[in-house]
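Why do we bother with a discrete structure alphabet at all? Because it lets us treat a fold like text: something you can write down, compare, and reason about line by line. To make this less abstract, here is a complete entry for 2OGFeDO JBP1/TET oxygenase domain-containing protein. Read it the way you would read a sentence in a foreign language you are learning: slowly, and without expecting to understand everything at once.
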Amino acid sequence: MEEAKESPGLSLCQQVSDFMRMVLRFKIDGTDPSLVPIPAGLSANMMEDSYLCVDILLRACQTINTYQTPWTLHELRNWRRGGRKKEFPLTAELIHPSVNGQKEVYRDTPCNVRDREGRIMCYYLPGILSQRRQRQLQTAILDLCDSSIQPLTLDPASGRHWRTNSVLFKDGDTMNLRMDPGAACYSPCWLEQGHPHSPPGPSATLMNNIANLTLLQDTQEVAALMGGILSIIHPALFQRGMDVWKTLYADPWPLRNGDRVRDLLDLWATPFTAMSVIANRETPHHRDLNGGLNFFDAILTFGTYEEGRFELPEIGRRFRYDRGTAIFMEARSLAHGASAVVGERCCLVLFFRPLMLKRELPEEEMDPEDVPMPTLGELRAAVRSD
């Protein structure tokens, strides 16, 4: 069977993935990473950012930067399904606690959180977005706000959906904000909610709004970098996402607005199936119930703000949520939230819709939600086998 053709966007993501994994393998094996062959298709900036991503990720995976829970993800899910009738040890402790024995108020250095079986369910990666990339993202959002009548959705306080309820957003009328408060989702192809049996197609935000197409172009390289990280921390999920997009790109015509899907996939540079932009909102503790079990979401933050905090209440941990931070986490199972800040904050969230990954799943492949979160040993072996 002939391999499905890659779009230009996915080709960029694959190049970033291959380069990051090679840099990581050189570092793990003790080889000078400057000897990594220079790929012809990557700019100097993309290579520099790839090195930064690998360095931060390696720091996060050090044993001294590891939290471990006394429970497994499977036990946590069973506890919820059982109606929480018994107490559950919802905590995580550092494998190597500080010498003086005092617990940190909040974490501000890279780390990972794994369950009792060693399956990593969260990576905290502060500083992984360079200043250049942060400026690029902020400019993209400001351009979006300037060029579109209503770039992001904001509902009245009486609205039922908390994600776009104005109560949680800064007041754009009284605070002279540069970034319009609100939230919006973008996908080149997904199933509309409430219509699981209809053909998938582009999100409404990407059908007729030229400004939103410009947003995809302006965030393309950052999306590719996040895809490269995913290829390291969850190779099977990365590959499944890439395979789905390649298949749809090769034969988009059965889809809803298939020609539009193909055009959008020329720009889409990540295995994630959707992206959200959230501007000037605090986020209450919640779980993303439309996400997939054992899937990673990528959450990036940027802007002009101070005093950001990101919380995982069931793990009993709070993280410093400075601009330039990325958090990869299993958001279906772990509750999480972000505090209000002083200044303006914007978040870019890359995530998967499970039904898209299960579309035309080959018989020999496992359901993506049944693939467990990888352990560090499994990830190390996968990189060395490249």
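What the structure line is telling us, in plain words: Residues 191 and 198 are 7 Å apart (CA to CA). The chain has a mean pLDDT of 90.
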